[in-house]
């Protein structure tokens, strides 16, 4: 099956791409950075796996259309994400809108572009990479939290609209994953909260999590693979939470 993964050169995206490629799927890495795409695709090809890449800005309607036409997906993984940490009154309006475009409108429009071929084949799997912040909130992340909360509602609607086909859409919501995106957040939150970076990790990121550990990218990849198995064909419109017990409190 063909798997299209957005944000595919990042920590989570590439881990998912490797897992699907290793499992025998044809993977398409989609991202903004062509040189990074070439490098990561070459790594997969060197391992003997099927891999292609597509330069894709998920806020660009033409690039979305081109990607869907060139690489119609059996499995779509909406993973592209960005972050900005600031109080709302200090949040640049254009940056607020960009986060919503990348993490809510982008997945919706790419799913929209991929859906007709999925329905025609009577098979489709859409997996959104959400966040613990699709379920809870943290200060200084209004745009990110709004986008991730919206992703859950979007997924439920698309599941209902396509329940007549062999189609599922689900959202994986991990707690903090140690990726470059989170590393940048640590520095930004240290500044906002007037804490050291180690204090941010201990007092903000891991404090609500009973297991006190970052989620590994391999856990997200394994969950995505599970959602594409035959045994998961009736799991749809669901939120799979990898949070070490955070939301149990």
TrEMBL record:
One Pfam family here: adh_short_C2
InterPro entries in alphabetical order: 3-OHbutyrate_DH, NAD(P)-bd_dom_sf, Sc_DH/Rdtase_CS, SDR, SDR_fam
Gene3D superfamilies: NAD(P)-binding Rossmann-like Domain (3.40.50.720)
UniProt feature coiled coil, ranges: none
Similarity comment: Belongs to the short-chain dehydrogenases/reductases (SDR) family.
Name this protein carries in UniProt: 3-hydroxybutyrate dehydrogenase
Organism annotation: Alishewanella longhuensis
Gene name of this polypeptide: hbdH1
């Amino acid at each position: 099956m063909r798997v299209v993964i957005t944000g595919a050169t990042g920590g989570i995206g590439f881990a998912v791409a490797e897992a699907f490629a290793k499992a025998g799927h044809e993977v398409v890495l989609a991202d903004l950075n062509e040189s990074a795409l070439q490098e990561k695709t070459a790594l997969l090809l060197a391992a003997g796996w099927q891999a292609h890449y597509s330069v894709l800005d998920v806020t660009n309607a033409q690039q979305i259309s081109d990607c869907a036409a060139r690489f119609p997906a059996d499995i779509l993984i909406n993973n592209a994400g960005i972050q900005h940490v600031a109080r709302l009154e200090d949040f640049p309006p254009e940056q607020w809108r960009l986060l919503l475009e990348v993490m809510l409108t982008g997945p919706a429009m790419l799913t929209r572009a991929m859906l007709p071929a999925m329905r025609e084949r009577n098979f489709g799997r859409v997996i959104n990479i959400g966040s613990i912040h699709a379920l809870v909130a943290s200060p200084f992340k209004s745009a990110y939290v709004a986008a991730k909360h919206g992703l859950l509602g979007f997924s439920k609607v698309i599941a209902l609209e396509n329940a007549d086909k062999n189609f599922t859409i689900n959202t994986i919501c991990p707690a903090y994953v140690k990726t470059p995106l989170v590393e940048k957040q640590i520095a930004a939150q240290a500044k906002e909260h007037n804490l050291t970076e180690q204090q941010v990790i201990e007092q903000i990121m891991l404090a609500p999590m009973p297991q006190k550990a970052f989620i590994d990218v391999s856990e997200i990849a394994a969950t995505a693979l599970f959602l594409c198995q035959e045994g998961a064909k009736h799991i749809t419109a669901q939120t799979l939470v990898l949070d070490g017990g955070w939301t149990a409190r």
